[in-house]
Structure formats: structure tokens, C-alpha cells
Fold each of these.
Amino acid sequence: MVQQTTERPTGGLCAHCPLSPAFPEADRCQPGDACVRAHSGRQIDRFFRRNPGEAENYLDDIFWERRAIAARYAPIDRIFRLRSDSDEVVRRVVAGRLPDSQLHAMTRDPDREVRLSVAARLPETELQQLIDDSDYLVRATVARRLPHGQLAQMVRDPEREVRKVVASRLPAFALHLLADDAEPEVRAIVAERALPELSARLLADSEWWVRLAAVGNAPPELLPPLLDDPELEVREAVAGRLAETPATPTAGK
């Protein structure tokens, strides 16, 4: 019987690879599956998973995807300089890996996704750097993380979605800052969370869903006039709230 032998590939991507034949022979890579020279993100990632120690050797590679994947595996102290890489995908990887104390240099990155990563990880004390970011998603992320005492700075943000986040986080005593917001979705959040006297004021709001939100928070003695509200849902909410409210004892009984 003739003994069959398996030969390692010597052509294709392996032909001029500096890692061949040593790496294929040691099963540290495999053409078509785990290959650092392939133009396939999956194959490159599989290669670095097997050989993380090789990653820093590819941080200056001409192929952006190879640099980006290498940046996931390289030691953190080797990827600082990639904060200004020409490709935004590489910078996104860096923004997700750097220590949060080193992210301040990326707050003005031209790529929104990079700044979103920065906004999600930046220390709270440095979030002020992004409070006026040009992208509302970045500002919304800031609003979700900003200390409560600083949120009042964002009540006049031009984007409704940002103000909705602010309304959902402001302390109840400060919600009067958004009670006259132009957007009913913002006012509805205020009505639902505000102190009773502010919710009472919003019982007269022009939008029915703001009135509906206020019903659950306003003093019950102010609700009976809304039993004649033009919106059925408001009337039903008022009737339900009044039914749950204990009657006030008559004086002298």
C-alpha cells in the first residue's frame, strides 16, 4: 500500500508569505480558514485568534481591515497611535479598547460612530466636551450619562430625542424647565414624572396624551373636570384614578 502524505500549500497566498512554511506546518494558520493575508475579515480574525502575538506586526498594514482586526488583539499600549488612523473603522476599534482616561483626544473625531463610542465610555467628568456635539445621537448618549446636576444645560437642545432623554432623567423638582417644551412627547414625560403641582398644570395641555400622562400624577381633587375630556382614553383614566382614590371623610363624621 502506498502511504499518502498531506502536503502544505505552497502557492497562492502562501507563496510570498513571510510566515510560510513555518506557520502552516505548525497549524498556526490555514489557507481558506485562518489566513492573515486573505482579504476576508473572518479569516484574518481567525488567524489573530490563534496568534494574538502577531497582531502588533500588522498595525501599519496597508489593508484597513487587517489593521482594524489587528487592533483588537494587539496590546493596548501599541494602539494609541491609531487614534488618528486614516480609516474610521480602525479608530472605532481603538475607541472601544483604549482606557477611558485616554479617550479625550478622540472627542472631535470626524466619524460619528467613533464619537458615540467615546461618549459611552468617557469619564463623566469629561462629558462636557461632547455636550455640543454636532450629532444628536452623540448628545443623547451624553444626556444619558451626564451627572444630574449638569443636565439642565441640555434642556434647550435642538433635537427632540435629546430633550426626551433629559426629561426622563432630570430630578422631578427641575422638570419645570421642560414643561413648556414645543414637543408633546417631551411634555408627556414631564407630566408623568413631575411633582403633583406641575402635573396639575399639564392637565390643561393641548395634546391629549400629555393630559393622559398628567392624570396619573396630578392631585385627584383636580381630576373631575376631565371626566368631560374630548378624548375617551383621558376620561377612562380619570374615572379609573378617581375610583381608586379613597373618598375624603365629611367634616363632623
Amino acid sequence: MRTLGVDLAAATRKTAAAVLEWTEGGARLVHLSLDVTDEEIVELFGSSDLTGVDCPLGWPDALLPFLAGHLEFDPHPVLDHDGIAGRRLLAYRDTDRFVTGATGLIPLSVSADRLAHPAMRCAVIQAKIAQDYGPQARDGSGRLAEVYPAASLKLWGIRARGYKGRGTAEAERLGVILGSLTAVAPWLDLAGYRDALEASDDMFDAVIASLTARAVSLRQTLMPPDDHAAAALSEGWIHVPSGPLAGLTGTG
């Protein structure tokens, strides 16, 4: 099987894609690119069995009635979110709160942070995928899943902090983290891309997204419990690993 990982930015620049080809016992990095367009993402999606995208697939369910109430001068849905607790329901999705409880990490808000810009692009890409391949469920039950590389690395036991950026210290840290990944996963063949990965945190995150997509395909991620299932379908669901990296090398 083939898994695609996408580290999605608001624009083509700094958007990265990585494709892993899986055979029994291992995986090989067969495609790695930076500054990836919408059209390239859709094309790679079409040739992959499962895609993991590091970007929210939806917005909080509470946000639309709040905005509609404000637009229509209807105070009731707006006043439902009076106070900090109410505004948190507008800022964070059900899956965001679940992931925080499971990992201790706090995902960025899709509606109250700069993450909103990539999410808008992601919505357009989802529509383009739907045109060519049909709509994809936002809970990850189709061929598209939302992933969170920082959470994946943490749950796989890889210390990964301080590697975001273009400075010398960040590059050195990224090299150490990549070394930790290959030590834990000696079955992962980077196929000559190691130098490129050490030079780009975006491409590195795309590889982690592709690894997590494999975990989704094997049902080795935390799935939405029954009381989260409805929200996952509309808001999206962040898939984080429920097993070790070595578990990804099963029959594919």
C-alpha cells in the first residue's frame, strides 16, 4: 500500500508531501516534495491508499450558529457562548479536547488562531478531492484522515521539541530527532532523502503524517468513542497512534 502525508500550509510555499510505499516488514520513502500545489496534493491522493493531512478538516459545530446569530441580530445563539467557557466551545473542537486529554498537547484553534488560514485551504482541497474521488468522511473512515505529527512523535516515544525554524540550532535538533526516528524504525528506508529531511521541518512532518496515515489504515489510532462520533463526522477527528511504530510493519 501507499500512504501520503501532507504538512499543509496556507499557501503552496512550505507545504510538503511525502509518500511511503509499504511492503511486509518495512516502508520506503518514494516521494518527497516541498512547495506543493493543490493540484499535486489531489493527484497524490488519487495514487495513495490513505492520506494523512496535518490540518483541521472542519470547524467547531458551535461556530456556525454563533456566527449566524450575530449576522441575523439574533442574541440567543450568541449569548449561549458568553464567557470564557462558552468561547472555548467556539475555538476548540471535540477532537481537540480529546487529544489534549489523551496526550497533554493542546492543538491550535482552527477558528481563533493562524491555523484558520491552512484550514480554509484544506476545505478547498477537500472539495477538489470530492469532485474527482468522492467526498471523504472527516472522521478518517475513508481515504483521508486528520493527523497531528507532534502527538504522533510523543506517543511513539520520540522527543521532538525545538526543531521548527531555519536556524542552526533548529537544524541540529531536527537531525537528532531524525536519527531517533530511524533508530526506533530501522525498517524505514529514507531512500536518499535524509539530507532533505534534515533541512526541512515541513518535509519531516509530512513523513510523520504519512507514517500516521499507515497507523490509521491499520486501525492503530485512537478512534472516536460513541459519544464523540457525531462531532467527528462534522468537525473532523485527529488520529493519534494507539500502538508502537513497530506495529506499522504488519502485512499491508
Amino acid sequence: MQRYFLNEKAFQDQTVTITGDDFHHISRVMRMEPGERILTVKGNGLIAVTEISEITNDTVIGNVLEWKNEEKELPIQVTIASGLPKGDKLEYIVQKGTELGALKFIPFIAARSVVKWDHKKVGKKLERLQKISKEAAEQSHRTVVPIVTEPMTVDQLIGIASEYDHTLIAFEEEAKRGETSVLASVLKDITSGQSILFVFGPEGGLAEKEIEKLTSSGFVACGLGPRILRTETAPLYALSAVSYHVELLR
């Protein structure tokens, strides 16, 4: 069954009202008809098996047949902070990172970021990224849609560090030096409900001054294996490692 994330207002008792892009997808793309069933997800993660009862010119109306409570989320909360990369790489990170279980994405303005977001276009860029996150969450059968925040500076990342149980930096120099224990140690000891803020540099990596500022504020630098990963690959490696440790090994 197709899955759609809806806001709380779409649910009234046992009736579900769907409009906008989701209406278009159901009626025009999937060409569904009354009697067919879909999964509708509330903001609190509850999932309703919903039977379509009526399709008008701009609205799909359905009836809730059954409520389900699925366990699809990582047992720990992972936030990915990515130094602004070139082209559509951030879209790729958000899409694949959502599939792998990330809960939040923070674009950050790194010293070596070639890309500079026009302040006037930030809203549209975030809207686009949030849409990608929603579609990837639906495709991968998540129960929540990850949030994409407004871009932050390194100082702002330091300012929110206290909200996390662990703050890590993917640093290629640590990989070159053969560091292999930090990430494994953190994932071995982390417990359900805890959180990680993971910082990744742009194409040119993080500058030494950024590393110094972050580590002096409690962030821990770690390697991601012996190979040097692209800026769009490193977050996916980290999320895969998290999933392996906290889901497959336990």
C-alpha cells in the first residue's frame, strides 16, 4: 500500500481528508479509485490503514479501518550536519540519509564550501529538500519525516551541541592516521534513546581552524575506515554503521 504523511488536521475521528500534492499523486499518478486502500501516517507516527471512500476534484476522503504502530525508526536519533556541497549532492544526502534512518539534516556553512546560498532562495531550497525527505520517508516506510533545518554556521553547531549525547566529526586526517576506534566505541556503548550529532565537511573537507574550534568544544574527531570518502558518501557510511551496530547486532 502507498504511504502518505499527513498533518494532524487531516484526521478527524475516523475520517481522513487528503489535498495538495498527495491528492494529485493518489488521483492522477496512481489513478486510485474508491475502495482502494492506502496507509496514512499521523505526525505522532501512528499509521492508519485507510480505505478511500470518495475522490472529488481536489480532495481524497478516506475512512480509517485500522490503526497500526510500527517499529521502523532507529533506536537512537542521528542528526547529519553537512558542509554545503556542490550541485545536487545535498539532495542526495537527504534522500539516501532518510532511507537509512537519519532524523534531522543540518546544512552548514563551512569555510571550504564553494556553494553560497542566496538568502532570498533559502526558503525554496529548504522546501525542495523537505519534499525530498518526505518522499524518501514514504518510499522507505518510515514513521516520521526527517527535518531539514536552515543553514547553520560552525558556531551555531557548537551552540546546539549540548542537546546531543555524542558529537562526532568525520575527519579524513584521522582516517589517514589509521584511527579506527572512536566510532566503533561510541556505537558499542550508546543506548536506546540517545542521540548523535555527526559533522561532515564539504568537498574540500573541514579546515583546521574548524576542527580546532569543534574539538575544543567537546566534539570528537573520528575516521570512517581507511578509504577517503566523498562528501555525499561519508554520511551514508556513518548511518549504515549506526544501523548495523544498534539494529542488526542487538
Amino acid sequence: MVYYDFHIHSALSPCGDIDMTPNNIVNMAALIGLDAIAVSDHNTVGNVGAVVKAGEKAGVTVIPAMEVETAEEIHVLTLYPSLESAEYAGNEVYKHLPEIKNRSDIFGEQLLMDENDEVIGREEKLLISSTSLSVNMLFDLVKESGGLFIPAHVDRHSYSVLTNLGFIPDDLPIAWIEISKRVTDLDAYFNSRPELRGYRVLRNSDAHYLMDISEREASLSSSVEDIFDFRRKR
């Protein structure tokens, strides 16, 4: 069994707490007993490399990731098999962000850090904006990068594909969806949304604070690489 939390924000996300540093995140995950995590900041992978290096020291597997907001204001969790593929996708996503400067006094700091938790810069462009990428355009980019496209927190009333579109488009051949931990009874939820029963489910924290990182609850039955098995579509 692999215990995981694949939706964690670092201090690079303006809504992420300043204590969400690479080492704090991986050390908290190790303390909890998680085997694998992913730091998925808003529309950027700027801190992922540092977290990967910190994870290697702490003995925690770190999957490169990013939470992207599409033109439809839908949040999508994207996971990648390598740092290089994540950086490629991240560079493309960044090109599609509007030229809006961050106001740290309003939105919060956007801190770039190294593997020693040293601040090495600040992202000037506001990251919590919708990109100009449509859902389908983002899907194609993630597929091109070898990554995994996972509609995020589909049960929520904001920034979810079910709220904003009302359905998951049939032309998106996805295997996974994310259902937030606030849904305590999955069977009851699936009874209310029976069209979702064919998808595999991730349960993540969407943590913006260290205390919110998932306990040792959600697990994969095999290896972390299992989530990238594209032969298992539905």
C-alpha cells in the first residue's frame, strides 16, 4: 500500500501559508507516514524541483504536479512522470496566464524557494488567475507532456468541472477524478452522481497549511507509477 497526498500547495501559491516550505512539507509528510506526495501550486511548477530534492533527503516520493485553472475557471490537478515533463507543461501554462501583477498585500506572497527553504525569488505574475487554455487545450498539453489530467475537487461548488460545465466532456478520455475529503460517504455521493462511478478516485487534502496535509488514510493498492497506467482508462 502506498499512502499519499497529491494536492498540496507550497508558499509559491499566494493562498499557501508561508510555512509551506519544501522541507516543512516533506518532513510533515514523513512524520505523518505518507509514502508519496505532490506539490501542486496554482499554474506553476516553480517550487517542484526544490520539493523533489527535499523529498529525496526525507525518504518521501514527490511527484511533480501543478493545479491549472482553465479558461472555464475549472481547476485541474495535473501529475507528471518527471520533473522535465512538468517543467515543459509549466512553461506552456505560464505563457497562457494574463499579464496581471501580484499584489502581495491582497493575495499573499508568491515565494520561490530552494531545497534548503531559502527564498530565491518572488513570482511577480499573479498565479491565481484563469489561463487562456480551454479544458481540451489543457488536456492536449498534459497528454503531450506524458502527464495525467485529473479534474480537481469535482464535488465542490466552485472551480469544479461539474459545477461550471455540469458534466465531464465525453471527449476527455480520463481515468481519474479527485473528490475532496469533505465527502465522507463516497457511496452516497456516487448515488447522487452515478455517471462518476466509472472513474478511479483520488482523495487529497488541497492543503494550504501544514496541519491540513492528509493523515495516513488514502492509499494506492500498488505502486505510485500505477496512476500513470494509461491502459486503464475507465
